Amino acid sequence: MTATVPPAPAAVPPLPPGVVTFPPTPGPPRRGNRLLGAIGILFAIASVAWGCGTLVDLLGHTSSTVRRTMPAVTSVRLDLGGTGPVRIIAEERSDTLVVRRVSQGLRETKVRETVEGTTLVLYSRCPQVLSTICNASYEVHVPLGTSVTSMISHPMRMRDPTGTGAGNRSLFAP
User: Fold this and answer.
1) CA–CA distance from 64 to each of 18, 108, 159 (Å)?
2) pLDDT tens for residues 97-151?
């Protein structure tokens, strides 16, 4: 029986004189690499969880419009948590008309309109967590001479009864 001998490996060329090499030292991975890997994994899990929550909120989207006629008021107080646009329209009328449009996800947008004496109070707030969709906009038709106070963080448009634009101005919360 004849045995075949494999060919000898090719010889490694010698290093130039004065060059010294050290073999790699095996050992455990460095602690910094493990920490960065753990942070990356936690970030990935948090991102996927947030994305799933946002998707569920989008799938639960609903919209509604409510029209309410109330007795005439002498003032309007806005306590709105930055939820959407507000239009106050002063005109010849003997009552107050509130048109509220709400768009929300799974978490409910808190809204209410109440009359306290002769003051109409509009209130709205968005949920603090997982509220991708949250909008409550108002259009309020009030009698001429009605005063408006606001506690809102965004611009508010007021229109004069003639519609000429002479009384248009943006009001900002203090």
Assistant:
1) 83, 12, 25
2) 999 998 888 788 888 898 999 999 998 888 877 677 788 888 999 988 888 887 7
Whole-structure pTM over 0.90, yes or no?
no
- Please state, in angstroms and rounded to a whole number, the distance separating the CA atoms of residues 122 and 87: 12
**18, amino acid identity:** G
Amino acid, single-letter form, for residue 29: P
Task: For residue 163, give the amino acid letter.
Answer: G
Q: Could you give the domains of the chain?
A: 62-169 (2.160.20.120)
Amino acid at site 88: I
Task: Tell me which amino acid residue 162 is.
Answer: T
Q: Which of 111, 110, 124, 103 is nearest to 60 (CA)?
A: 103
